[in-house]
Amino acid sequence: MNQTIETILQHRSIRQFTTEPIEPQKLQLILSCANAASSSSFIQCTSIIRITNPETRAQIAQLAGGQAYVASAAEFLVFCADFFRHKQISPNAQLGFTEQTLIGAIDTGLMGQNALLAAESMGLGGVYIGGIRNNPSKLTELLSLPNHVVPLFGMCLGYPARQPEIKPRLPLSIVVHQEQYQQLDSEELKAYDQHVRAYYAARSSNNKQVSWSEQVSATLDKEARPFMQAYLKRQGFSTR
């Protein structure tokens, strides 16, 4: 056990922030840590857009489904997969491959995780905002994103106003497979569902009575942004 591992294991999403701003040097360190993440073939296909204009923040909060903390957090960053700069460097660049979409998503996710871990190590907190993909075309227009750039997620950062309980994750016995893929153990899943149900019932806010399996079923039994495929193709991603 060391400080890095303790920081990772203490992760929880923060949605309530104080009004204290993030010091410029801390923000610079967070962004530098994001930029230090691994990059497939050193392509470096991620851009981060820092949003400070209150009106823009308010619009994004609404586009993301009315998530007020997008507007109130000390910092709000939009992480984008970006191959537009590569097109500027090499006009003949072969873009649009689905593999590039995967690379963009993976590299951008790695940068986001680096940024959040760096922030948490300095006593800050944050939350990912996947809701920016609720209205990707409007967000693209709002942020003047060119072709070959897509916004993947936002990130709120700030000083936590409260520290919610840590959500229990799936046990490693379910997540980690030995040599070959293992079928789901129904008894282990049942025990985990009971654990999650107890967590939701006992936590200090937003109590509810639901298991993990029930929550996952409710999420996956409905359509998941079916407009994304057409949007990605309009932006020059996954066209082949």
From TrEMBL:
Annotated GO MF terms = oxidoreductase activity
Record key words, sorted = Flavoprotein, FMN, NADP, Oxidoreductase
User: Record's superkingdom?
Assistant: Bacteria
Gene3D superfamilies, per this entry?
NADH Oxidase (3.40.109.10)
Q: Name one Pfam family in it.
A: Nitroreductase
- Where is each Nitroreductase domain found? 8-159
For this chain, the family text in UniProt reads: Belongs to the flavin oxidoreductase frp family.
What's the protein here called? Oxygen-insensitive NADPH nitroreductase
Organism the protein comes from: Shewanella fidelis
Taxonomic lineage from the root = Bacteria, Pseudomonadati, Pseudomonadota, Gammaproteobacteria, Alteromonadales
Gene that produces this protein: nfsA
